[in-house]
Each structure stands twice: as C-alpha cells, then as structure tokens.
C-alpha cells in the first residue's frame, strides 16, 4: 500500500461505504484509454467508465489539449456578470444538438444539483405563471436522481440509498412506470386527482441507471408526454446517465422522438474529465422567467457554475462526438456485451441478462456483495463495481474487442462461481 493511502485512510470519508468493514480502495497511479493503472503495477480494464463518465476513454489527447490551453488562458472566473467563450459556445452547441426548443442552458457542477435546478425551474414556472399550489413532483419506482435532500425525495424509496431519511423531506408521488394499460390508468387517475398540486413529472428516459439498470420502451416516454400534456404538467428528462451516446442515440430524447420541457445532463458531458452539469429548459419554460419583474428571475448560481476548464473539456468532447464514430463503437460494444454475457443466463441466482446500447446487465435475484465482487473482478484484470442486484458494464466507447472479452469473461467466470 502506498504511504499516502495508509496516511490518508484515517481522514478520507469514502462514498457509499461502511468505512469499518469495506475492503481498502485500490490505489490508482494513472489512467490510459480504457485502463486504470494501479500503484502496484496492475492494469485494470474499466468496465464502468468511472461511474459512466469516461465515454471517450481516459486521457484523450484532444480533451487534454483543450483543457491545457484553457488552463493557461483562464482556469475559472465567476459567471455572475462575466461571460467566457467556452460556456457560451457549449450552450449554443447543446441547444443545437437537443431537439425541439430545448434552447436555454443553466450550468452547474454536479448531476444532483442540475436535477435540483430542474425542480426549482418547474416550481417557479408555475409561480411565475400565477398558478399557486403546484409544489409536488411525480417520479418513478426504480428511479435515481441524486443524493441531495430534494433529489432524494424523487428517488425510489426502497431501491434508493436514502431509506433512512423517510419523513425528513416532503413526500412526492413515486409511482409505477406506465409500462402497461394498468399502470398507465393508475398514473392517469393520480394526475386527475392530484394534478393541480403537481409541478412536473421526472423520469430517467430508457434506462433507470443507479436504481438497477432497468429498461423501458420509448412508448412509455410517449405515454408520459401524452399524460403530461393532458394534465397540463411539465415533463423533465433526467439524461444524466443516458446522455451522450450511452443508449445508442446521442440523447434518449433525440432517439425516442419524445421531447421533454427540461432535460438534465452531466456524467459524460465532459468526457469524464471535470465536473459539470446542465439543466436545459424549453422556450416555453424559459419564457415564464422572461419579465420586467426582477422577482421572476431564476435565483440560482453555483460558485463554480460553467467552470471554463470543464466547459472547454465538454466542447472538446462534443468535437469527438461530431465525427460520428461513436455510433459504430456503441453498436460494436452492444454486440460484444450481448454475446459475452449470454452464458451468465444459466448461472445460479441470475434472473436476467439484458443490453441496450453500450450497457450490459446481469441481474440477480438478490443483492450481491459489491466489495467481494470488486476484488474478484480486479483479480481478473477488470474494474467492475456492481450495485444492488446488478453486475453491469458501461465501458468507454474506445474499449477494444479484446478488452470487452476480458470484461465479459470475468463476469461469466465470477458469476459461475469459479
Ligand atoms: C448520477 C446521476 C445523478 C446524480 O449525479 P451526481 O453528479 O452524482 O450528483 C442524477 N441522475 C441520474 C440519472 C444519475 O445517473
């Protein structure tokens, strides 16, 4: 163990971690492409792209050059009253890439904060429109939208990591995803009964990520749009996980043809290099804030919002998306994951194997032992960190065929109990 790890271990409080019993974290020396190189010299293929961020792989020279150049020009300036090219260019580019009139970009530094901002936008949209009492949100079982206090209330109350805090914050309507006529009718009648108290519906389109990599059809999104319109509600897509190619389309809202009123982005926005997020509103939402009344403004402004280094990284990441090569890579990864994980179907305790885009999932009947499995995967040259009942892969798009087969092979081997 390197000295810095031994010394710092008494002081660093790790994420989602029982500090007393969890295995020691792996000490990272550096990263390269799809690989994490440890201090002890081992090289792990990163099967989850560092929590779904490093879509172009690590240390991409184009992103590095953009960030280095920006670091010399201006690493950070406040965004209140000042403007800089990286953020203004990024906002224009995101607006051009997103469908419909999703044209108004509010920057923040983390996914949870972007979701909080989207909630605040929805609440104030109604206040500014002179409609009182629309203070609640509808979200979906199995969903995950962040770890901050307000976002916890729209996460799945059981699956989520927030069960302890029940009662701390006002309860929201967390309901079944309308996958069939029964659940659709239930949502419709909830909205009929309570619609006047509800500001917006919020959903992770196509895949509920942290709640267990649960997929749904685009027809579900069309249903949500139809019900939101029928009851006059806003619809928010949380694309923090699904954005930037992961499901096979650049965004779920471009691929599905269903356009929300607000979309949140983060995770792969900077290609996994720097923290940045955005809540992007449609013209209709933005217009409710456009007024001669100073009190109608959106009163929000994180200190590090639109950090120039992060925006430069995001612009460079978008350059890499522009050549379109990612599409073929996502299709290639999908085929490799589907084929490579197929043998797991017969393994003990496995209830499902599924893929979508560059996402491959092996689901178990019961929760797995994350710490123990991480160790076993690392022994096989892989960084894979299961959550809840799922062992999953969301590799960088640059992962080679040989690296993909190392990842799927490790899962098959470990799952078979060998
Ligand atoms: C990760 C995630 C968040 C929270 O983002 P943080 O940057 O961890 O705060 C919110 N929504 C979804 C769908 C996510 O996957």
Automatic annotation (TrEMBL):
UniProt-recorded Gene Ontology molecular function terms: adenosylmethionine-8-amino-7-oxononanoate transaminase activity; pyridoxal phosphate binding
Localization terms from the record: Cytoplasm
A Pfam family annotated for this UniProt entry: Aminotran_3
Catalyzed reactions per annotation: (8S)-8-amino-7-oxononanoate + S-adenosyl-L-methionine = S-adenosyl-4-methylsulfanyl-2-oxobutanoate + (7R,8S)-7,8-diammoniononanoate
CDD domains in the record: OAT_like (cd00610)
Gene Ontology cellular component list: cytoplasm
HAMAP family: BioA
Protein name (Swiss-Prot/TrEMBL): Adenosylmethionine-8-amino-7-oxononanoate aminotransferase
């Amino acid at each position: 163990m390197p000295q810095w790890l031994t010394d710092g271990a008494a002081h660093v409080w790790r994420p989602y971690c029982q500090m007393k019993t969890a295995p020691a974290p792996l000490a990272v020396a550096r990263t390269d492409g799809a690989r994490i190189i440890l201090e002890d010299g081992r090289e792990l293929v990163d099967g989850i792209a560092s929590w779904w961020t490093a879509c172009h792989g690590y240390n991409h020279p184009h992103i590095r050059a953009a960030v280095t150049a920006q670091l010399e020009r201006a690493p950070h300036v406040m965004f209140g009253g000042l403007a800089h090219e990286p953020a203004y260019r990024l906002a224009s580019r995101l607006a051009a890439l997103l469908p419909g009139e999703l044209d108004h970009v509010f920057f923040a530094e983390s996914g949870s904060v972007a979701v909080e901002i989207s909630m605040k936008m929805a609440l104030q949209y109604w206040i500014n429109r002179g409609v009182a009492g629309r203070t609640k949100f509808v979200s979906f079982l199995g969903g995950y939208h962040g770890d901050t206090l307000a976002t916890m209330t729209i996460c799945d109350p059981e699956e989520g990591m927030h069960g302890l805090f029940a009662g701390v914050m006002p309860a929201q309507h967390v309901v079944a995803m309308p996958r069939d006529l029964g659940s659709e009718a239930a949502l419709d009648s909830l909205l009929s009964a309570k619609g006047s108290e509800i500001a917006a519906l919020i959903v992770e389109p196509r895949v509920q990520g942290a709640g267990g990599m649960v997929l749904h059809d685009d027809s579900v999104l069309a249903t949500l749009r139809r019900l939101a319109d029928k009851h006059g509600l806003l619809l928010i897509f949380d694309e923090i996980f699904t954005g930037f190619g992961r499901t096979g389309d650049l965004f779920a809202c471009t691929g599905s043809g269903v356009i929300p009123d607000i979309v949140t982005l983060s995770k792969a926005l900077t290609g996994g290099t720097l923290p940045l997020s955005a809540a992007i509103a449609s013209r209709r939402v933005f217009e409710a804030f456009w007024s001669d009344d100073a009190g109608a403004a959106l009163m929000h402004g994180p200190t590090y919002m639109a950090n120039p280094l992060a925006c430069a990284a995001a612009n460079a990441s978008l350059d890499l998306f522009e050549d379109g090569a990612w599409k073929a890579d996502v299709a290639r990864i999908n085929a490799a994951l589907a084929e490579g994980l197929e043998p797991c179907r017969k393994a003990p305790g496995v209830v499902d194997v599924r893929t979508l885009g560059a996402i491959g999932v092996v689901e178990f009947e019961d929760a797995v032992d994350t710490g123990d499995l991480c160790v076993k995967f690392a022994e096989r040259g892989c960084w894979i960190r299961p959550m809840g009942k799922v062992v999953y892969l969301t590799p960088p798009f640059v992962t080679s065929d040989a690296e993909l087969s190392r990842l799927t092979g490790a899962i098959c081997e470990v799952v078979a109990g060998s």
